[in-house]
Design goal:
- There is one protein chain.
- The chain is of the alpha/beta class and about 425 residues long.
- The protein has 3 domains: about 80 residues, no CATH class; about 70 residues, 2-Layer Sandwich (Alpha-Beta Plaits); about 230 residues, Rossmann fold (3-Layer(aba) Sandwich).
- About 30% of the residues lie in helices and about 20% in strands.
- Helix 1 runs antiparallel to helix 2 and helix 6 runs parallel beside helix 9.
């Protein structure tokens, strides 16, 4: 069975960045994006990710671009493996094959599009957020990119986009597993705030209050989703709602699936939603995020692992979303960490111990696993006081330049969380 696209993406990108020498310079020459000041290079990708060697070699623009090339190569492999399910949109992003989304559609625009051969596949509404959208099939013989351009010209006032894909922001590293009982022994005091996660499905070994699928074959247990859920459980969060946006669908993780999952979680009363996925900007998902925030939901999202020259990660880059990066156990920024249009906090993202779908406890790496740890601190702060931001700022340890910065945000949270016990 083919690996999920998210795993291909994360592992290829991580292997590329760790193969190149990286150090403490704060800017990539000519790229104009911040680079984490790590001061050391992480070693072998296979089973020694946390063995380090001293270096003073500054990252170059060539090395940053090399990471982007590796990212594109991984996406190309995914596309070639699933040509009936995935294609590129007019901006080059991966998206669901042969489908366009029209958010808040008006009858006149739809009539024009239908006359031009765009067939309505479904009329849908995002639960709890009062957002309507229409799913269109592109005309026969027309690529998604061509159809997107044509539809925009035919209905310039309509909000038309492809249903772009979101990919996971972390993966396990090769190391010995620990017994399942070790995780239960490390659990923190219970936190009663309802928390939702948007990810792959969770395994039976990680109890959740409710599960729901938003892709074909969902909910289906996944290692990544199970790891995120087990980290939340270990921090005392027992009221978990798990939304699976992947299932067994090769085009899982679409913007519409993530938006519908967010609506379900908001309608279920979740006050914090953690998202360890990254993708391009989506008008539909952005509208859903804004609507959920209007209902008091705090959305916490990973900046991804595509390196400092990668495009801004979404949903982390949407206004008001808490963007989370990762640090290793010595407080050094992950050299593969991506970027968002803003950065709020950092949390441990290397040697983070969590369960896989089979209930085995493994070490994981990536901003995917920093994000639920930060989300747990948000939930704990909400349980104690209304000004959760002030509580987090008091807790966060300031690193890097004094005050908020582009490498650590407002500081590092939950530094002892997710350690090997």
């Amino acid at each position: 069975m083919m690996r999920r696209p998210t795993q291909l993406y994360a592992l290829a990108a991580l292997a590329g960045v760790l193969a190149a020498p990286v150090a403490a310079q704060l800017q990539v020459p000519g790229v104009g994006v911040p680079v984490p000041p790590v001061g050391r290079v992480l070693g072998e990708v296979t089973d020694r990710l946390d063995r380090t060697v001293d270096t003073a070699t500054a990252i170059t623009e060539r090395e940053a671009r090399r990471l982007l090339r590796l990212r594109e190569a991984a996406l190309d492999r995914l596309l070639r493996a699933n040509p009936q399910a995935i294609e590129r949109d007019s901006a080059g992003n991966l998206a669901r094959h042969g489908e366009l989304l029209v958010t808040g559609p008006d009858a006149a625009s739809l009539a024009v599009l239908e006359k031009a051969g765009f067939r309505i596949l479904s009329r849908e509404e995002i639960e709890g957020l009062d957002i309507a959208f229409v799913r269109l099939a592109v005309p026969a013989g027309m690529s998604l990119a061509e159809a997107q351009t044509r539809a925009a010209a035919l209905a310039p006032d309509a909000q038309i986009e492809a249903d772009t894909l979101h990919l996971e922001a972390g993966a396990p590293i090769a190391t010995a597993a620990l017994p399942v009982t070790a995780l239960a022994a490390a659990a923190a005091a219970p936190v009663e705030v309802k928390v939702g996660l948007i990810d792959g499905g969770t395994g039976a070994s990680v109890p959740v209050a409710a599960r729901k699928g938003f892709a074909s074959g969902a909910p289906a247990a996944s290692d990544h989703g199970s790891a995120v859920a087990s980290l939340l459980r270990a921090q005392g969060l027992t009221r978990l709602w798990a939304a699976d946006v992947y299932g067994t669908d090769p085009a899982g993780g679409s913007a519409s699936a993530v938006a519908k999952a967010l609506g379900w979680l908001a309608a279920s009363g979740c006050k914090v939603v953690t998202v360890s996925l990254v993708g391009p900007r989506s008008a539909l998902l952005e509208k859903a995020v804004i609507a959920a925030q209007g209902k008091g939901v705090v959305v916490v999202a990973a900046v991804g692992n595509d390196g400092p020259a990668a495009p801004p990660a979404y949903p982390a880059s949407y206004s008001g979303v808490l963007a989370i990066t990762g640090v290793d156990r010595k407080g050094r920024a992950l050299i593969e960490a991506g970027r968002a249009l803003h950065l709020d906090y950092a949390a441990p993202g290397a040697e983070v111990w969590a369960m896989d779908a089979a209930g085995k406890r493994k070490a994981w790496r990536g901003t995917s696993f920093a994000t639920p740890l930060a989300a747990a601190r948000v939930a704990a702060a909400l349980a104690q006081e209304s000004n959760w931001r002030a509580a987090l700022d008091r807790e966060a340890r300031d690193l890097g330049t004094k005050g908020a910065d582009a490498t650590y945000g407002r500081g590092v949270l939950c530094e002892s969380c997710g350690k090997k016990k």
